[in-house]
């Protein structure tokens, strides 16, 4: 039986963290002391279930100096934890997860990931073809330049949880979900991004719960997918719509949608449920159902002071029932 170890790392070698990974066994903890590290750390399939932890949160810095591609790459591995690092000045991403599962990415700060001009779109964290990962309490800001670069991307992945993160002032979106299923986005603050707060494309059964989405340059939430649920969120002061559905069978329930520069809720699809929302002071109607869309259910919402109308229905046979229109 192998005895589990705590491997201590200090910034006295250009490959200090990578060397610790090479020597680690399953279940070991790599405890990284404060200082600045210029590394690209790769964790591969023979290194399952290791923990890489900053001894002092965000005082342990990985700095790519604008020449290294990524701080951490988790490739074909399971159960890795990365906790408490400050990551900056890499080219492609702060943390990349590929073909893996059950990772925990906790309480990191990631910024200044710039990409390659005209060629590469950078991300703070990117998850590709992976299952069951937790991204929690990370702060991801200033990713990309000139409309290239988003805070988090989930691509062809399922069962991931994005919980309690801050996604601020990124050059494109706060969170992108593409070609995924059964993911949850819960309790995040998503603000000041230069495109959408959250965009969901061809990704069904996404839960978006208790998020704050404000001051994004386009829409708060743009859902181009089916069977997504936007619940108990505050969606305010976005320069586009608060929320837009372009495919069928989505739900918005008990959200506060206020002061958006376009519609509070824009519907360009059928069979959506809009229930118990508070929709106020939006600039291009509180709820705008576009032609020719049908069979949307609008029930027990409160609409107040939206311009020019609280509800504008250009579709046919939509059920608009028991709403309060002040």
From TrEMBL:
Keywords: Repeat. SMART domains: PbH1 (SM00710). Residues 184-324 form the Right handed beta helix domain. Residues 307-326 are annotated as: Disordered. SUPFAM superfamilies: Pectin lyase-like (SSF51126). Gene3D superfamilies: Single-stranded right-handed beta-helix, Pectin lyase-like (2.160.20.10). This is Right handed beta helix domain-containing protein. It comes from Paenibacillus psychroresistens.
């Amino acid at each position: 039986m192998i005895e589990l170890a705590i491997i201590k790392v200090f910034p006295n070698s250009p490959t200090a963290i990578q060397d610790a990974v090479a020597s680690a066994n399953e279940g070991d903890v790599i405890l990284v002391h404060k200082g600045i590290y210029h590394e690209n750390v790769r964790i591969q399939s023979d290194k399952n279930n290791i923990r890489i932890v900053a001894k002092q949160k965000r005082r342990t810095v990985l700095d790519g100096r604008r020449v290294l591609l990524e701080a951490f790459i988790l490739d074909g591995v399971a159960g890795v934890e990365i906790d408490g690092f400050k990551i900056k000045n890499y080219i492609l991403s702060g943390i990349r997860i590929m073909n893996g599962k059950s990772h925990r990415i906790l309480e990191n700060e990631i910024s200044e990931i710039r990409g390659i001009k005209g060629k590469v779109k950078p991300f703070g964290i990117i998850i590709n073809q992976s299952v069951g990962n937790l991204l929690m309490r990370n702060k991801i800001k200033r990713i990309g330049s000139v409309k290239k670069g988003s805070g988090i991307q989930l691509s062809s992945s399922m069962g991931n949880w994005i919980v309690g993160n801050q996604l601020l002032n990124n050059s494109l979106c706060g969170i992108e979900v593409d070609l995924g299923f059964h993911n949850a986005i819960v309790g995040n603050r998503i603000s000041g991004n230069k495109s959408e707060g959250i965009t969901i494309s061809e990704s069904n059964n996404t839960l978006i719960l208790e998020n704050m989405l404000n001051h994004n340059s386009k829409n708060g939430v743009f859902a181009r997918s089916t069977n997504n649920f936007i619940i108990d969120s505050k969606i305010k002061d976005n320069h586009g719509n608060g929320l837009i559905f372009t495919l069928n069978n989505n739900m918005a329930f008990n959200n506060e949608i206020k002061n958006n520069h376009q519609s509070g809720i824009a519907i360009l699809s059928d069979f959506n449920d809009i229930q118990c929302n508070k929709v106020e002071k939006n600039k291009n109607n509180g709820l705008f159902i576009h032609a020719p869309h049908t069979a949307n259910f609008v029930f027990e919402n409160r609409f107040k002071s939206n311009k020019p109308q609280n509800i504008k229905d250009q579709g046919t046979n939509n059920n608009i029932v028991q709403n309060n229109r002040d």
